Amino acid sequence: MSRAIRFHQTGGPEVLTLEEVEVGEPGPGQARVRHQAIGVNFVDTYHRTGLYTLPLPAGLGVEGAGVVEAVGPGVAHVRAGDRVAYQGGPPGSYSERRVLPADRLVKLPDAVSFEDAAALMLKGLTVEMLVRRVHAVKPGETVLWHAAAGGVGLIACQWLKAIGARVIGTVGSDEKAALARAHGCDEVVVYTREDFPARVKALTGGAGVPVVYDSVGKATFDGSLDCLAPRGMMVSFGNASGPVPPVSPLTLGVKGSLFLTRPSVMAYTADRGELEQAAAALFALVAAKKIAAEIGRRYPLAEAAQAHRDLEGRRTTGSVLLLP
């Protein structure tokens, strides 16, 4: 048996319950992992509320790090005793132990701790996808990154500085502004008191930026389009303020023949080879000390509901972890 967070109906954090569940032996292509650290992400709140639907009752969580306890038939790339981490696959990482598809697991280098891996896997691979493959950021290029002091944002600021880009970030407070600057953000806009499209235009001499990375969603989408240079790319990858309403393609034309994309890290790492390449790129920057995990808060597994309240209430910075 294992303790796990489950929910039987969608709703607020109060629907999350700690339950005893049967784990069992891994089947073909599967592995059983004992978690040492678990990542908490906004996508978990989307599953909980029903914005992204799951068959109920369901587990929660798509990121974790731990030790392989057993593998099923046909699994050769990991074995019992290996230190591993993962992102993606069926939700269920909010647990002490679980069985999951082994092809989601990557081995951890000795230099990467369990907590760092749980803080970096989903967010770090998201950043890798966004700055290397969705829009390949070039040295000297200026980009706009919303929520620059969040878990993804702090990793992005570091990665973009390693590339040699100029980063304009938006944040909600002076405290978060200082944190973003400390992680490589060149220009910080406190959107709660500043008009961020006007500031971005001023900071770029009226030209706008070639790419906007926006995980906030509804509250920033329209303003983000106004920050783009002609033929710029709007990258919408989150809904922290709510989902973006439908957009007419005519709007993209009027504002400068803009591109709009909604990438998913799950789609960009579905191929095993791409997953390994992305993880290798992330771990190389960690080993070179160009990226460090910023762990804002740690909660016991049983306090997952409070972790969600704090995350949705914008009371967290950096990565949030659950410890089993």
TrEMBL record:
Domain annotation Enoyl reductase (ER): ranges: 11-322
SMART domains linked: PKS_ER
Keywords linked to the UniProt accession: NADP, Oxidoreductase
Alphabetized InterPro entries for the sequence: ADH-like_C (IPR013149), ADH-like_N (IPR013154), ER (IPR020843), GroES-like_sf (IPR011032), NAD(P)-bd_dom_sf (IPR036291), QOR-like (IPR047618), Quin_OxRdtase/zeta-crystal_CS (IPR002364)
Pfam families: ADH_N, ADH_zinc_N
Keyword Ligase: no
NCBIfam families: PRK10754.1
PANTHER family reported for this sequence: QUINONE OXIDOREDUCTASE PIG3-RELATED, QUINONE OXIDOREDUCTASE-RELATED
Name of the molecule in the record: Quinone oxidoreductase
Source organism: Anaeromyxobacter paludicola
Gene coding for it: qor-1
